[in-house]
Amino acid sequence: xxxxxxxxxxxxxxxxxxxxxxxxxxxxxxxxxxxxxxxxxxxxxxxxxxxxxxxxxxxxxxxxxxxxxxxxxxxxxxxxxxxxxxxxxxxxxxxxxxxxxxxxxxxxxxxxxxxxxxxxxxxxxxxxxxxxx
Length: 133
Fold this sequence. Notes:
Blueprint: H1 2-54, H2 61-78, H3 84-102, H4 108-132
Helix pairs in contact: 1-2, 1-4, 2-3, 3-4
């Protein structure tokens, strides 16, 4: 009888852990979709700023970033992203990297890589914060 009770308790505990893992994975997937939605919403605004740089209206990548960063922030607000401090941190870092590109401190490929890495860090930090909730 005791063995049966222990088996039942073990089974219940294992089911609970699986459910928690499933919930965490679902939350992670939903957050990734939210980030993807925000980035997709930001594309048209970013495109306008890039086109203005190509047309000579903006002379530097940094000027283009100053134009598009508010578009990125607005897109994340539109999808009700909960960690806007991370978005602000990302747009600040993006501007910093593009200023380095303008100053010829880094090549364009490296600036793209650094921006993407920083975005990956934002996503990772988002998942950490979600787990802490």
